[in-house]
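stage 2 :: seqdesign
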């Protein structure tokens, strides 16, 4: 685990990749699918294959931003009894092995758990920050205070059709990186529009110096290479989750590592002028099996609809 705060660790990893002229590869998987231990094993496999930052999804029964592949995976995780405690178990396992981790969660589970408590426990586990795509305007001050107090990155999503005013508002609330959506619609429901994604990155850069990472619709090396010329990070989710739909875990891990390897290779060619930054290395030490499951038996059910957000 890095001795820096989570946000600083994340920012230094992204800056180190920029120094080398390439974006970071960020891989998403939900905790608990096909089981909690198997999902953590898959996360480590992604890192060994070339993922730089792991994005762990917290299952939720109303995943308004997610398409059918991720929905099925998170529903499976919920049926299997996955809890918020399992998220922190996974974060601890990865961070203890030197892997930077961000959590992707909807606001309802955070609010139910308690924003301050959630931020505290994520930081204690070694997390770098959280992506909360549906953060309501009225809860922004509470979440800002909680994440700042615990040194966590606060990441929000900018849609490609956002006005300049909305882009500025979202970007100004972000720390760590700004998540630029490469296409409209749900995750996994179509291919990234590379030209549109690069244009959105340019628009975001006009109003912030915070790193900009692109996700939504990136599933092939060609997609990843297409956005690499402008993005600080390339986020892949649905295509990785889909790999684990194989008949066996071993087959799923083989598919997963093959895809990650090809995605990572597509980003190796320097695409931009390097910028100076420090590097925080990531390495697996096999420690995940020594991490026990903790308390916090909080269910992951929904308590409301998506509210007006940033």
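stage 2 :: out
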């Amino acid at each position: 685990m890095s001795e820096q705060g989570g946000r600083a660790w994340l920012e230094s990893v992204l800056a180190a990749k920029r120094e080398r002229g390439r974006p970071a590869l960020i891989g998403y998987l939900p905790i608990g699918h096909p089981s909690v231990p198997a999902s953590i094993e898959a996360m480590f496999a992604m890192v060994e294959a070339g993922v730089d930052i792991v994005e762990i999804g917290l299952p939720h029964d109303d995943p308004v931003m997610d398409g059918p592949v991720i929905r099925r995976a998170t529903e499976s995780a919920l049926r299997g009894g996955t809890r918020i405690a399992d998220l922190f178990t996974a974060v601890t396992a990865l961070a203890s092995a030197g892997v930077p981790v961000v959590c992707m969660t909807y606001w309802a589970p955070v609010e139910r758990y308690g924003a301050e408590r959630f931020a505290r426990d994520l930081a204690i586990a070694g997390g770098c920050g959280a992506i909360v795509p549906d953060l309501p305007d009225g809860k922004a001050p509470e979440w800002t205070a909680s994440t700042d107090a615990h040194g966590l990155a606060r990441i929000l999503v900018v849609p490609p059709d956002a006005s300049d005013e909305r882009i500025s508002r979202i970007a100004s609330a972000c720390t760590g990186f700004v998540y630029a959506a490469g296409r409209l619609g749900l995750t996994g429901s179509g291919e990234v529009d590379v030209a549109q994604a690069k244009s959105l990155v340019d628009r975001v850069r006009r109003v912030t110096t915070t790193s900009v990472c692109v996700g939504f619709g990136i599933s092939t090396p060609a997609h990843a290479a297409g956005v690499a010329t402008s993005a600080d990070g390339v986020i892949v989710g649905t295509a990785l989750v889909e790999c684990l739909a194989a008949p066996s875990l071993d087959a799923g891990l083989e598919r997963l590592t093959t895809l990650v390897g090809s995605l990572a290779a597509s980003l190796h060619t320097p695409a931009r002028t390097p910028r100076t930054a420090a590097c925080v290395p990531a390495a697996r030490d096999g420690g995940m099996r020594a991490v026990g499951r903790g308390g916090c038996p909080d269910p992951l059910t929904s308590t409301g609809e998506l509210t007006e957000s940033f």
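stage 3 :: structure notes
- Strands lie at 24-30, 53-57, 101-104, 129-131, 153-155, 157-158, 177-181, 211-215, 233-236.
- The two ends are 32 Å apart (CA to CA).
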